[in-house]
Amino acid sequence: MKKISVLLCIWLGAGSLFAQTVKKEDFWWKKNNLRVIQMNLPAYEGATIHADSIVADLVQYSANTLLINAGGIMAFYPTKLDFHYQNPYSTDNHVLGDIIRKCHEKKIRVIVRFDFSRVHESIFKAHPDWCYISPKGERIINTDMYVVSINAPYVQEKAFKIIEEVISLFPIDGIFLNMPGYQVNNPYEGKYHGIDQNDYDKKRFAAFSGGMKLPTEENKADTLFQKYLEFKKQTVEDWSERLHKLVKSRNSQIAICTYSDKYVDIIRHESQSMTTLPYWPYTASDNVANAVNSFPEHIISNASIQQISFQSRYNAVEPQEVQIRLYENMANGSGLDLSMMGDMRGYEDERNYDVIRKVYAFHQKHEPYFGKYKSVAKIAVIAPGAWPSGDPMQEYRGIQLMLKEAHIPFDIIEDGQIANLAEKVKGYKLLILPEITYLKPESIATLKQASRQGTSLIATSRSLFDSPETLQELFGAKIEKKDNDGAGNYLVPDDRSIFKRFPGQKMLFWKFNLGLYDLKGADQQLLPILAKGRPGPPEIIGGHDLTGYYAMGIKNHEKSKAAIFPVNLGKLYYVHGYQEHKNLLLDAIDYILPEAKETVQTNAPERVEVIVKEFIKNTDANREKKTSEGMILHLVNLTGFSGNTYFEPLPLYNLQFRIKSDKAPKKVFGLANGKAVKFQAKNGFIHLELDKLEGFEGIVMEWN
């Protein structure tokens, strides 16, 4: 095993230096057992926080990692840098050092938070050229804090000085970068300002582009803006690489954590409260599964954000929502992560404390069964990025919802990672593309290779609309009108050998987009589209005649099939939840990949989230072990979710499961109830019986 020699700076009272050899696998975060509590301190708490109470609370709540403010917007320690605004409320110059020292005494890691997105008004007045300026000449201001420009000296030079100062003063275990990158919005006021026109940005973009001027509008069809997107990516990665070199040169055991993947050790994501209905109860599963599968070399930490919104920071989301998020984190292969405003004493909304204490203690008690998982899924859903929004987000979530409710296991792969994970992608039996409108040429090539090797495809809505040759080659489809309001149209579930879930139904209503595609190049044209006809009054309804168009096409390839639904199938189910639209996808999967429903079969209600993983015990002795030791069936009870709020889940009884497995377990037991679980192993399946399910259960099936 290759060893990396590093000089570690460890602060032991007066401080000392010694050389230490570290294997890559020995990096502390690689164990993937994080139980993070982030204390996002407002400035005024700088006068009241105490190391003893903070550490006592972390111990009480079974946390093993603290994430706490250090610098950037303001220093929460005695800085000597004149461009680093000092927290005016800080009265104890030693508190951050005391917190770190006392955390380490209790074996609690400390990640410190930096936010270089803003500077205090005093810094702005001295250096206005460091700050953002909009196309209209406006600044982005939050009270007395000014948004900075990423290419100006504060971010490009001074930020590194601040980080160096903190590393030199404190034996930190990690750094977290909040709100990195380019800013175009004032998120705290919900206002869009536009592309930064700072002179430093103009000069750097001109050098990058060969003399081009900065765009002033975000238009993806504009070649200038496309060049600007390349510029943003390159400059952010350049900064991240420089940061990585700086930090690792000082101490390779300092973890770098932020929301991106390049030059980062821990990818952070967030489960946030939604501002629109319906709420998304699978937010943690979505975030973690996406990151774990898209960036398998990284550790993922998905934060449950306590606050309801920026405008409602002093109110927390419902306890049951937090419980679901935390259990989903564990079930999908992450640790626990919670972000709150301030410390835990005198908190304005403490309703979640019992849930946090319970779930964190549960993770600590059963830690060997979390964090080292292998997927059993034969299906992957392609995600439209890490932070999807708009129609693609609704289509993507709707497809996930259908699969979750049908208890069909699936992985998630970010669209931009398809080519980077080509062998993994080609290993799935079915890939689903929910409104994946653009893919890089190398990603399209990967899809074509996968199709030739036996991976079937299902694409929905406007997927691949900008690559007509790909639509024709893979799906036999040609766009005539990709945007078409389908309200009033009907679909006919015509081939009952495929559409088996429609007893008593001859017409299926439609809403949202209903693309009109020429599917003559497909081997099968299905779901004839009926005209809008006459919606009323009742005396004259009718006239829903055949249009000659179809809402589904299937093209047969030598070793696979490719089906296309050029319609908002996922969005319609996500927004309205009519079973008939889910059934279209489920019938298509049954036809294309009948074995998909065999992985998990159960009588559990649709509101029980079922997640199956193979596991290796997460212990020091198993650090380099690659062979699975069993399977674990995670059950998250969502019966308390109503669509617009969260209640206590209903207890469920006498649940039965049939899990496909080539191996028979020697022992089966529940982590939550601590009891043996009735089971039989025969004919390639494990049959389980669970007497009672409350909020969560993890059923362990050990092979040895």
UniProtKB/TrEMBL annotation:
Signal peptide bounds: 1-19
InterPro entries: Class_I_gatase-like, GH, GHL6
Top-level taxonomic group: Bacteria
CDD domains, sorted: A4_beta-galactosidase_middle_domain (cd03143)
Keyword terms, alphabetized: Hydrolase, Signal
GO molecular function terms listed in the Swiss-Prot or TrEMBL record: hydrolase activity
Keyword Hydrolase on entry: yes
SUPFAM superfamilies: (Trans)glycosidases (SSF51445)
Pfam families per UniProt: GHL6 (PF14871)
Protein's name according to its UniProt entry: Family 10 glycosylhydrolase
